[in-house]
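Lecture 7, part 2: worked example. A protein chain together with zinc ion.
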Amino acid sequence: MNANAHPTLARLPHFAGIDASNLVARLDALLDAQRARIAALTAAGSSDWEEVVTPMEEMADELHRFFGPVSHLHNVADTDALRAVYTECVSRVSAFGAELEQNAGLCAAYQRLRAQPAFSQFDDARRKLVDNALRDFRLGGVDLPAATQAEVTRLKVELAQLAARYEENVLDASQGFSLDVDDEARLAGLPASTLAMARQKAADAGRAGWRLTLDLPSYVPAMCNLVDRELRRQLYEAYTTRASDCGPQAGSHDNSAVMHDLLTRRQQLARLLGFDNYAALSLATKMAPSPTAVVEFLEDLGRQARPAAQREVEQLRDFARTELGMDQLEAWDIAYCSEQLRRHRYQLNQEELRPYFPLPKVRAGLFEITARLFGLRFERVEGVETWHPDVEFHAVCDADGATRGYFYLDLYARAGKRSGAWMDDCLSRWQHGDDTQLPVAYLNCNFTPAQGGNPSLLTHDEVTTLFHEFGHGLHHMLTTVGRPAVAGINGVPWDAVELPSQFLENWCWEREALDLMSGHVESGQALPQALFERLDAARHFQAAMQMVRQLEFALFDFRLHRDYAPGCDIQALLDDVRAQVAVITPPRWNRFQHSFTHIFGGGYAAGYYSYKWAEVLSADAFERFTEEGIFNADTGRAFRDSILAKGGAEDALTLFRRFRGREPEVAALLRQAGLIA
Ligand SMILES: [Zn+2]
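Predicted complex, written out as structure tokens:
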């Protein structure tokens, strides 16, 4: 297949052409031209789709094709020059978005479109697009008096600044602490790679010995493996008091006031926009129907998981007492003892699995499995410009050869690339005039690169991560919707968007599927049955403890954003949630809330519950495959047609019901977690 095969390929970004030095000026020119075009459009007073929505789609496409690749480069191949202008660009783009949402003339054009008799004849995607747009105008404050609108804008700007300060405090506190160790014997238990990293960190700081820090690649292995209890205690204290009034850095980088400033403004914003509280505002764009439904959902899961979580803690205490000689299980012993118990019980080590998962074999298995499930074919496309020689470009085709979409596959960690794994949209499906632009996805992971002629070898966790991101990718690429705002992952509510991704992870636990994705790097032998059984047995290790911990975070987040009023005692609210669902009570000085960046820095405010909410959907959807066959092509086709194809063009619950024939059932999640049979 060559790069001129489909017109969409001519619309792919030209990464090498991105010039940081003139980015802000070019963005300003683009936005000003769009402002002028929108002013002309609203002045014309049209209620015609082609005169209102089509130009808005063209402008959204123009902006996305300009700024999307910039944002992507910032994530995968950052440079000092790009970083220097990136934040400036982001604030201009978000200010432009806020300006559109408060544009009364534009809102009136969509209202005229909505009011015309032909509206009811529009297809699902067009009706949803217009309804979403009108909702976003309302949430932007379009129908408020000018003074209130200014207040809304001011609050949004302040909220963005406060969130950034919160994150900076956490980052500074994380980097502001280190623990130097001179006696290697004290580091007993630490894996060799972590030990080498600690050695390097000390050397970088110009000293002998080893340096332990609070970044996760250092902190997590230390807490799970360090035999020295006092070292664990010191690390735990430093980590759980980051950016707070307690611990070794007490008072410096303290987020106490920032949290109150954020919460006060969030409640003010919600009230200005006509909501009782910020939790209700958050749900205005989500699948969950009401704050009560969210709290009941979480509390119900808590009631079902807590007895099992209590048993798991008891088992851990017994093990610590009998096998490790610890009479009192402290907070800083939990991860350590759990890791020892896991090894003791299952004799399983992630590293041991790596030789069975060479990347080329895993990728071939992933393609084979999804091809069988959804009737697809994958083709490598050569000659497409990327941002790094390791990046691959593939086409997703129907079995009969018709191309559905494309994806960039950027698998390896390297300098300048942010950590973690994620999927992003490069282009969305768009029926424009006589043309159809096909969807294009960016799929990004951070696996260890291939070395010395050997392929990259993945842990089972990493294999699962690849399947997860590929699920997001298929959601984006297999859409049949032609309106970009609701095609693929666009317009899908936050608490439903993890359905296809978590869903696809399930195949990583199926024997038949593992046969397709595993093959020993030397012998080519698939994952041996004995190893599979240990892996499978360990799948639900401490599942209930993990579940109640997630519920603690989710309930704290949601109740905080529902109930907060000035003077609210945040610690007391967290203590109350813990008394309700937690099975481990941390020390009085633990300040988890001061570094809960998901809800104070990122976009999860009153939305942390989404993880569990979407997990019910994905677990329940997968059960139809366990009932009908995990490679049943008819079931796969049904999932593709009713969920993957529809993107955000229809209500998420409607789509789920169409696939499952009924409402989602929480029991499916409990079964998946091994909490009920
Ligand atoms: Zn995801």
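The chain has a mean pLDDT of 95. Strands lie at 178-181, 210-213, 376-380, 392-398, 403-412, 422-427, 430-432, 435-437, 440-447. Keep this in mind for problem set question 3.
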